[in-house]
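Re: [ENG-882] Designed sequences occasionally contain unexpected residues at chain ends

Forwarding the minimal case from QA. Structure tokens:
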């Protein structure tokens, strides 16, 4: 499963760029490179990679498969704050770290969909229930307004 590396207990590094040749499971190969460790058994959902999928399609699929997902750059302190805020509420989001060239594959907000200007996707970006909430500032604003818990309950990420 090339392109997927576990960075820590709660962050998965996903390489969304196309792979030159898909790895075969099981049989033969002499490849010599070390295989990534298998995902931990404590993970509640698995991340799957289809090498034929484009980066945009993978991101859209991941958004639809996870009630709360954060797309971030490596070592992003704002992502850490987002995770801590959500963890204090009782939600543990899926976090995907993207390279700078992969950030462009993030879907934009619905609010600027009619804009003819090129978009500049921000990272970290949090998606709740398939909807882009935005970055840290938007997440904190949602929390301070009292709407974050309601939204998390609606998408099934939190039970009260």
């Amino acid at each position: 499963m090339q392109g997927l590396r576990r960075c820590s207990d709660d962050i998965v590094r996903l390489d969304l760029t196309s792979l030159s040749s898909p790895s075969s499971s099981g049989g033969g190969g002499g490849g010599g490179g070390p295989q990534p460790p298998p995902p931990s058994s404590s993970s509640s959902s698995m991340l799957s990679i289809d090498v034929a999928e484009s980066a945009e399609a993978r991101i859209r699929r991941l958004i639809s498969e996870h009630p709360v997902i954060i797309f971030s750059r490596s070592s992003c302190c704002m992502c850490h704050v987002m995770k801590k805020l959500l963890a204090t509420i009782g939600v543990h989001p899926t976090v995907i770290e993207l390279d700078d060239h992969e950030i462009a594959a993030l879907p934009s907000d619905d609010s600027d969909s009619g804009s003819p200007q090129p978009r500049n996707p921000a990272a970290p970006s949090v998606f709740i229930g398939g909807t882009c909430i935005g970055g840290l500032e938007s997440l904190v604003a949602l929390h301070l307004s009292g709407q974050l818990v309601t939204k998390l309950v609606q998408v099934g990420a939190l039970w009260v």
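QA comment: On inspection the terminal residues look reasonable. Confidence is low (pLDDT under 50) at residues 19-31, 33-44, 111-120. Proposing we downgrade this to a documentation issue.
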